[in-house]
Design a protein that fits this description.
Helix content: 55-70%
Low-confidence stretches: none
Largest sheet: 5 strands, mixed
Radius of gyration: 25 Å
Distance between the termini: 67 Å
Length: about 700
C-alpha cells in the first residue's frame, strides 16, 4: 500500500517518494469526493450527523497532503515540486467544494438554530460551529455561480503563485555564493563559521591542493551563514557584496518574484471585493483577535512611539562608537550596522558570540529545555530515536509523558540547516491532533519542530548561537501548546482553531526563559571543559539582552506596517508599486539611509506572500503583548521561588496550553492572568520602560 494512503499513526516518511505520491493521490482524492457525495446526500443536521462525519471524510486526504507539503519543505527536489504542483489544484478544488457546499452550510445553520433553542452544544463545539460558518461564508458559500467561479479561480491561482514564490526564493538562495580564498578576506569570522564554510567549499571541490584550515570559504545567503558573517567578518567589501545579494534575492531572472507579489496583492484584493469586504486586510482580520485595521494601526503606533527616541539614541551611539573604533566613512551603511552593533555589544558587555556559543552544546540545550518543561508543566520528555520512521538521518524523535508515566504526545525534531533541500527559517507543524476514535480510544498529538541551526563540522560537538537557542525555545513553545492540549475535538485541539494573532503567545513566552539564571544553568556547559556558565557571563548576557532593542522593535514594526499598508491601503496614487509602500514605511520606521534604492526585499518576504501572515504580520507583536504579560506572572511569583514557579507553570499549562482553540484567546488569558494585558510588560522586557517602583 502507498505510504500516502490511509496513513498510519507513524507516517512512513522513509517510504515516501514523489513517484508514489503522484501515483496514489488520484485515488485518495476520488475517495474523498465520494465520501462528501454521500454526506451531502444523507447527513443529518446534528453534530454526530454532520460535523464529525465531515471531519472524518476529509481527514485522509488532508493528512496525505500535509505529509507531501512537509516533504517538499524539508527534502525539496524537482520531483517533490512536480508532484506538489500537479496535485495542488485538486486539493484546492476539494477544499473549496467542502466549504462552499450549500447542503453543509444549511446543516450548520440548522445546528446553530437547534443550539439556540435547546443549548445542545458545549461551549467548545459552539465555537467550532461559529468558526465553520464564518469560514464557509468567507470562502464564498453565498456567492452567485459566476462570482463563485471567479473566486475559485483566484484561490487556485493564489495557491500556485505561493508555491512559485517559495521555490524562487529557495532557488535564489541556493544560487548565490561568495567564495573567499585568502585568510585576510575572512578575518574576524568565528571559528565555527570558518569550519562550516570551508567544509561547504570542499564539498563543492573548490579546495584542491589546499590543506585544511587554509580555505577557501563558501559564503552563502543561508541564514545560519549570512547572519554571523555580517556580524563578524571584517572584510567590508565582502559584507557589502553579501548584503546586496541578500536584499536582491528572488528579484531577477530566473528567480523573480516581483510580478508574482504584485499579482498576489491584486488577487487578494479582488477576493475581498467578491466577498463584500473593502480590503483584503478587512477580510483577514474578520477571523483574528484584532478584528479591525485601526486596532492594528494603534498597536503599531503605540509601540513605535515608545521606541523612536530610544532608536535614534542607539543609532547615534553606534555611529560614535564606530568612529572612535576607526570607522572612517561619513556614516554607517546597512552592511556596517550588524558588524558594528556586535562590536559595540562586545565592548559594552565584554563577551563575544563565539565565546558564548561554546557554552551551548546542542545536546545540553535540548536536555535543558526538557528539564524546564518538566519543572514548569509537570511532563517528562524521553528520546525515542528509531521508534518512528524519519525523512533524514539528522531527525530526532521524542515521547512526552505526564509525571505519572501517562503518555501525552510525541514529536520530531529536524534541527540543522540544509540549504539545498530545506526551506529557510523555523516552524512547528502538527502531524497528529488529539482526538478520539469511534470507540473512544485517545489519539495522542504528534508535532514536528523544524529549525535551521548551524551544521556540526566533522566530529566536533554541535554548538548553538544564542539566537538559535531562542529559536528552538520558540518552536518548542508552539509544540507544547499542541501537545499538552486537553481538548478532544480535533478542529480546535492544540494549535488548531486559535486565531492567528494569538498563536504566537506560547512560543514567544518560552523565549523569555533563555534569560532566566536557573534555566541557563540547565542549558549550558562549556563544550570543552564542562564548566558551568560563569555568573559574570550570565550577568553580561542579561545586560546585553536589550542591546539595540529599540531598533529591533522598529524593524519589526516596519514589516508589520508595510504588510498592513499593502493589504489595507495599496494601491494609492502616491504609491506606484508595492515597493513604494515599503519605502514609505522605511522612512517612518528605519534609520535614514538604511534602505538602499536597489533594495528588493519584498521579493523574499515569504511570510506575507507565500505564507499565512498576509495582513497578519502584526501578529508577532500582538501575541508578544500577551506573552510578556504571561511571563510577568512568573516574575511576580519570584523566579527564584521554585514552588511558586511550578504553581504558576501548572496554571499556564491548564489554561494557555490546555485549552487550545476551543476557547477565545482573551478568555483563556484572563483565566490564567485574571486581567487583560497592556503593552507595559513588553516595553519593560524590551528595555523601553523602566520597571515600576514598589
Amino acid at each position: 500500500m502507498s505510504p500516502f494512503n490511509r496513513i498510519p499513526y507513524y507516517p512512513r516518511f522513509d517510504l515516501m517518494t514523489p513517484e508514489n505520491a503522484t501515483e496514489s493521490f488520484p485515488a485518495i482524492i476520488r475517495e474523498a469526493h465520494m465520501a462528501i457525495d454521500a454526506l451531502e446526500r444523507d447527513a443529518a443536521p446534528s453534530w454526530a450527523g454532520l460535523m464529525r462525519p465531515l471531519h472524518d471524510a476529509c481527514q485522509p486526504l488532508f493528512d496525505a497532503w500535509t505529509m507531501l507539503c512537509h516533504m517538499l519543505s524539508v527534502m525539496n527536489s524537482d520531483g517533490w515540486r512536480k508532484a506538489h504542483d500537479e496535485i495542488q489544484p485538486e486539493i484546492v478544488a476539494f477544499a473549496l467544494r467542502v466549504t462552499q457546499s450549500p447542503a453543509f452550510y444549511k446543516g450548520y445553520l440548522a445546528i446553530r438554530e437547534e443550539d439556540r433553542k435547546n443549548n445542545s452544544l458545549s461551549p467548545v463545539r459552539r465555537r467550532i460551529l461559529a468558526q465553520t460558518i464564518i469560514s464557509a461564508e468567507l470562502t464564498g458559500v453565498g456567492l452567485a455561480p459566476a462570482e463563485r467561479s471567479r473566486f475559485n479561480a483566484i484561490q487556485n491561482e493564489l495557491a500556485g503563485l505561493a508555491a512559485d514564490f517559495r521555490n524562487n526564493l529557495l532557488d535564489a538562495t541556493k544560487a548565490f555564493s561568495l567564495v573567499l580564498t585568502e585568510p585576510a578576506q575572512v578575518e574576524g569570522m568565528p571559528q565555527s563559521l570558518l569550519a562550516v564554510t570551508e567544509m561547504a567549499a570542499r564539498q563543492d571541490g573548490l579546495a584542491q591542493g589546499r590543506s585544511p584550515g587554509t580555505g577557501p570559504w563558501k559564503i552563502t545567503l543561508d541564514t545560519a551563514v549570512y547572519l554571523p558573517f555580517m556580524q563578524h567578518c571584517r572584510n567590508r567589501d565582502a559584507r557589502e557584496q553579501l548584503y546586496r545579494a541578500h536584499i536582491a534575492k528572488a528579484s531577477s531572472t530566473p528567480y523573480d518574484n516581483t510580478d508574482l507579489l504584485e499579482r498576489i496583492i491584486a488577487l487578494r484584493s479582488e477576493l475581498a471585493s467578491l466577498l463584500g469586504y473593502p480590503t483584503f486586510a478587512d477580510l483577514s482580520l474578520a477571523q483574528k483577535c484584532a478584528k479591525k485595521i485601526n486596532a492594528v494601526d494603534e498597536l503599531i503606533a503605540d509601540l513605535a512611539t515608545a521606541s523612536r527616541a530610544a532608536g535614534e539614541r542607539e543609532i547615534s551611539a553606534l555611529e560614535e562608537f564606530a568612529r572612535s573604533s576607526g570607522f572612517a566613512d561619513e556614516s554607517l551603511r546597512p552592511w556596517d550596522v550588524p558588524f558594528w552593533t556586535e562590536r559595540q555589544r562586545e565592548a559594552l558587555y565584554g563577551y563575544s558570540e563565539e565565546e558564548l556559543s561554546n557554552y551551548f552544546p546542542f545536546p545540553r540545550v535540548l536536555q535543558g529545555i526538557f528539564s524546564l518543561a518538566e519543572k514548569l508543566f509537570g511532563i517528562v520528555i524521553k528520546a525515542a530515536d528509531g521508534e518512528a520512521p524519519v525523512w533524514h538521518p539528522d531527525v530526532r524523535f521524542f515521547r512526552v509523558e505526564d509525571q505519572n508515566g501517562t503518555p501525552l504526545a510525541c514529536f520530531y525534531l529536524d534541527p540543522y540547516s540544509r540549504p539545498a533541500t530545506k526551506s529557510g527559517g523555523a516552524w512547528m507543524n502538527a502531524f497528529r491532533t488529539r482526538d478520539r476514535t469511534p470507540d473512544n480510544q485517545l489519539i495522542l498529538p504528534m508535532a514536528v519542530l523544524v529549525c535551521n541551526q548551524s551544521v556540526p563540522v566533522d566530529e566536533q560537538p554541535p554548538t548553538m548561537r544564542l539566537n538559535e537557542v531562542t529559536t528552538l525555545f520558540h518552536e518548542f513553545g508552539h509544540a507544547l501548546q499542541h501537545m499538552l492540549t486537553t481538548v478532544d475535538d480535533p478542529q480546535v485541539s492544540g494549535i488548531n482553531g486559535i486565531e492567528w494573532d494569538a498563536v504566537e503567545i506560547a512560543s514567544q513566552f518560552m523565549e523569555n526563559w533563555c534569560y532566566d539564571h536557573a534555566t541557563l544553568l540547565l542549558l549550558s556547559r562549556h563544550v570543552e571543559t564542562g564548566d558551568a556558565l560563569p555568573d559574570t557571563l550570565f550577568r553580561k548576557l542579561v545586560a546585553a539582552k536589550n542591546h539595540f532593542a529599540a531598533n529591533k522593535m522598529l524593524r519589526q514594526l516596519f514589516f508589520a506596517a508595510t504588510d498592513m499598508d499593502l493589504y489595507a491601503r495599496y494601491p494609492r496614487p502616491e504609491w506606484s508599486d508595492a515597493d513604494a509602500v515599503k519605502r514609505h514605511n522605511a522612512d517612518a520606521f528605519l534609520p535614514p539611509g538604511m534602505l538602499l534604492p536597489e533594495d528588493r526585499s519584498l521579493c523574499s518576504f515569504s511570510h506575507i506572500f507565500a505564507g499565512a501572515y498576509a495582513a497578519g504580520y502584526y501578529s508577532y507583536k500582538w501575541s508578544e503583548v500577551y506573552s510578556a504579560e504571561a511571563f510577568a506572572a512568573f516574575e511576580e511569583a519570584g523566579l527564584e521561588n521554585e514552588t511558586a514557579v511550578r504553581e504558576v507553570g501548572r496554571r499556564f499549562r491548564s489554561t494557555l496550553l490546555a485549552l487550545g482553540g476551543g476557547t477565545d484567546p482573551s478568555e483563556v488569558f484572563k483565566l490564567f492572568r485574571n486581567k487583560a494585558p497592556t503593552i507595559d510588560a513588553l516595553l519593560r522586557h524590551s528595555g523601553l520602560k523602566q520597571p515600576d517602583l514598589l
